[in-house]
Amino acid sequence: MEIYPTPHNVALIDVHHLGRSHVIGAFLLLGDEPALVDPGPASTIPALRAGLSSYGLTVTDLRAIVLTHIHLDHAGATGLLVAENPHLVVHVHERGAPHLIDPSRLLNSATQLYGDRMATLWGDVRPIAAERIRTYTGGETLSLRGHPLRAFDAPGHAKHHLIWLDEANGAAFVGDNTGVRLPGVRMTRPATPPPDVDLDAWAQTHDLLEQLRPQWLCLTHFGAYDDVAFHLTDARLRLRQWAEIVRQSLLAGHDEATGVAALEKALALEAATLSPSEQTAILQQTGPLILSWRGLARYWHKSGALDKGHVAQN
Ligand SMILES: [Zn+2]
């Protein structure tokens, strides 16, 4: 098993989504109350079990599932895991909790994005009883032995996104708020799927992260990074660049295919220094580019920034 650099008392389990490495990782908080931050989708539970067993653990040893947000690639496994272990408690943003209790709306909107690939991609998403869930809005602390986790409201990628800061080791579990990154590669890519992308809120979340000065950024896609200043600067820059490409394309009246092609071209330039296999891998992390496009386009349409007479503020 590949061992990755991680904060003290934290392990990273690659759940090998669709058999691919470095796409989705679950962080395992080690100690007396083992916990998972974002267990991944239901479709990768076998790999999750294998990862746990390499640390001498099973699903029944876990005491908490800590979610950054409820997107299926991060949280889809939670229902099955909770059904298997009566001691498991789920910690999630208040806005995400209703969709864990009744996942039908979440599944409907994911089906609009992924169609008949839903089962292959995400597996069996089970509802979770309300009494197994604790909710957060930011400002609270979840004290797991050895891991005092402070919750911060962190919209931008999703309205129901939290960042969890482990005050014992300086690890910030940032979910998708600082993009995706491949181990060994000094470049980030934004994660901007519909429907919640909000660039103003996202900028504030990035400000917050800068103020918190974490020692590590822990990304589901993929890995823990301690070059925090570089990573944050790069993530902000790329997000602005992608957003601007989409805005310009919408202002020019391009159709979606033309717009996506413009984004593709810009990405090829950005990634020109990567090897072909790295380029493929980082695209797999981001998910289909058309979804990145749609998330940003939806934001711009809602923002009013495309209206005549609007003056861009940044
Ligand atoms: Zn997400």
Features:
314 residues, alpha/beta, Metallo-beta-lactamase, Chain A, six-stranded mixed sheet, 14 strands, 38% helix, binds zinc ion
Q: What do you see in this structure?
A:
The chain is an alpha/beta fold and 314 residues long. The protein has two domains: 224 residues, Metallo-beta-lactamase, Chain A, CATH 3.60.15.10; 65 residues, no CATH class. Helices cover 38% and strands 18% of the residues. It has eleven helices and 14 strands. Strands 1-2-3-4-5-6 form a six-stranded mixed beta sheet, with helices on one face. The protein has a six-stranded mixed beta sheet with strand order 7-8-9-10-13-14, with no helix packed on it. α8 runs antiparallel to α9. The longest helix is centred in the C-terminal third of the chain and has 24 residues. The termini are far apart. The mean pLDDT is 94.
Itemize the secondary structure elements and their pairings.
Elements: E1 10-14, E2 25-29, E3 35-37, H1 45-53, E4 64-66, H2 72-75, H3 78-84, E5 89-93, H4 97-101, H5 104-114, H6 118-122, E6 133-136, E7 141-144, E8 147-153, E9 162-166, E10 171-175, E11 180-181, E12 188-189, H7 199-212, E13 216-219, E14 223-225, H8 228-251, H9 256-270, H10 276-286, H11 289-303
Parallel strand pairs: 3-4, 4-5, 5-6, 10-13
Antiparallel strand pairs: 1-2, 2-3, 7-8, 8-9, 9-10, 11-12, 13-14
Helix pairs in contact: 7-8, 8-9, 8-11, 9-11
The structure holds zinc ion.
